[in-house]
Design brief:
The complex is a heterodimer. Chain A is of the alpha/beta class. Helices cover 41% and strands 22% of the residues of chain A. The radius of gyration of chain A is 14 Å and the shape is globular. In chain B, α8 (239-249) crosses α10. The longest helix of chain B is centred in the middle third of the chain and has 48 residues, at 142-189. The radius of gyration of chain B is 36 Å and the shape is elongated. Classes of the chains: A alpha/beta, B alpha+beta.
């Protein structure tokens, strides 16, 4: 089976949303390996571990990041991740997927190099497919 | 007062001019007294030659000094609040050197009540131009000053309320959107082919509700976002460019409805404005003109600009259904008011348009007659 994306990750604390996105991804065979992190901290631990090559971990090609999360929110995650300045990240595409419509948030996301785009929830199935197809194209 | 007696009075005053001059420091002139009563302003003076200080009646009243009190220069500092004594001293010395002053200062009455006052002072010169004293007026502005402080406090309060309201709107729209997002995805993923007809119909309701909720939320977002965009920066915008962008984006609808556009932007070609707003305003007014076209004729839309009294105007005029302004005029720009029973009328377009225009300090007016058409004039 050929998948558009080898590995992707969702960083979001909304179980139902994660569950639904996973269904869409599986239904359309968009991603081979999907990682789920409940907050920025969990994701950061994984990324730092993987990028330091402590184990045979891979870096997700597509990252869907929520902003409002407990323990470590999306901004803090981005802040921490950019401190490491990993060159491997240049092959990854990061989307903020948030229900925030605060223009300040959207403006702020534009100042961060890692962020490709800001998707406002609700995201549609087609929008989601596009994110993955776009990357594989 | 009768003219005759007024004349007499004026005459007397003129005749008595030397006496008035002699009593320069007692200031018992009629007009002066009346004004003093009217404005509750007290007068004071210091006569350097005779080494005497005077307070007039009103000053004595404001400062609450006993009738027997004789003011002296030495003790005058006692009538100023401690933190303003130095300021008062400096002003007095300056005035004695020939420099007039006008200031707001904290004063103290004889009975030790502190009050805010407006104070003016001027040097008094003799015929040779030497400064022989100073005199001035002070007026209690305590009530005004206190009102001003109160007003500032209420402004802070309102600002706080506004901030909380704004946060509330954001939280509501944010939290609701998470749920709507999940509801929409769920309905999109739901497998309906194994349902019986009745359940299919019921499920269709779910989808519809989810979509409607989404639309309502989008409106809410637009309003919330509008409130935050008020400080958006204006830039010089070419109106024709914006017009072209808007008509390009609705090319299909224009073709379907056989819309004819007439434009004239030569009088005002460019204006400082928020580009996204102008686009949204034009888009709304033009699509409205198409939506509410007259069934018996193809829509013709006139769009032009003009300048009047140094203000710029944009006009969008159509030959559509028109609106009964006597009936609906007041509600036209309100939220969720629709007038033509159109299915795609949301009742939000003109409300948003008006909000956008007003947030940039402009105005929108409408002229219309039923069956003939409408004319919207935007003061930019």
């Amino acid at each position: 089976m050929k998948y558009p994306i080898e590995m992707a990750c969702i960083i979001d604390d909304d179980d139902m949303y994660v569950n639904l996105i996973t269904k869409v991804i599986n239904m359309r065979n968009l991603v081979k390996n999907l990682l789920i992190f409940k907050n920025g901290k969990e994701a950061l631990d994984y990324f730092v571990g993987a990028l330091k090559k402590l184990e045979e971990r891979k870096i997700p090609q597509v990252i869907l990041l929520d902003l409002n999360m407990p323990v470590m929110n999306g901004w803090q995650f981005l802040n921490n991740l950019s401190k490491y300045n990993f060159p491997e990240l240049k092959d990854s595409t990061l989307y903020i997927v948030s229900s925030s419509i605060n223009p300040a948030d959207i403006e702020r996301s534009k100042t961060i190099n890692l962020v490709k785009d800001f998707l406002i929830k609700p995201v549609t199935i087609d929008q989601l497919s596009e994110v993955f197809m776009d990357k594989s194209a | 007062m009768e003219l005759k007696s007024l004349k007499k009075r004026l005459y007397t005053t003129q005749k008595n001019t030397p006496i008035v001059k002699e009593n320069l420091f007692t200031m018992d002139d009629f007009y002066y007294k009346e004004i003093s009563n009217l404005t509750l302003a007290g007068g004071w003076s210091v006569d350097f030659l005779n080494k005497k200080s005077y307070f007039d009646k009103q000053a004595r009243k404001i400062l609450q000094v006993p009738d027997s009190y004789i003011p002296t220069l030495k003790q005058s500092y006692l009538f100023y609040a401690e933190e303003h004594m130095q300021k008062a001293t400096n002003l007095f010395f300056g005035c004695a050197q020939g420099e007039s002053f006008s200031t707001e200062i904290k004063m103290v009455t004889f009975t030790k009540e502190v009050f805010w006052a407006k104070a003016y002072g001027k040097p008094v010169t003799n015929n040779e131009g030497e400064i022989i004293g100073i005199r001035g007026v002070f007026q209690s502005i305590d009530k005004e000053k206190k009102k001003e402080l109160q007003l500032e406090a209420s402004l802070d309060l309102i600002e706080g309320h506004n901030k909380r309201l704004y946060n509330f709107a954001h939280i509501v729209s944010h939290n609701l959107r998470s749920h709507v997002s999940n509801l929409q995805l769920t309905t999109a993923l739901f497998e309906t082919k194994n349902l019986d007809e009745e359940q299919k119909e019921l499920f269709a309701n779910f989808s519809k509700i989810a979509t409607n909720l989404d639309v309502t939320l989008k409106h809410l977002n637009e309003i919330v976002t509008l409130q935050t965009n008020i400080n958006k920066e204006k830039e010089i915008i070419n109106i024709e460019d914006v017009y072209k962008r808007v008509t390009d984006s609705i090319r299909q609808i224009s073709l379907q409805n056989k819309v004819v556009y007439y434009t004239e932007f030569s009088e005002v070609e460019e204006i400082p404005y928020v580009s996204a707003y102008l686009e949204s305003i034009l888009h709304n007014l033009i699509t409205n003109a198409i939506k509410y076209k007259h069934p018996d004729r193809d829509p013709e839309i006139n769009i032009f600009t003009y300048e009047e009294d140094k203000k710029n105007y944009l006009v969008v005029k159509d030959n559509g259904l028109g609106i009964d302004l006597d009936k609906h005029g007041k509600q036209l720009f309100q939220m969720y008011k629709t007038f033509h029973h159109n299915d795609d009328a949301t009742g939000l377009g003109l409300f948003l348009t008006k909000s956008q225009i007003e947030s940039l300090g402009g105005k929108i007016t409408v002229e219309s007659s039923v069956g003939k058409g409408s004319k919207f004039t935007v003061q930019l």
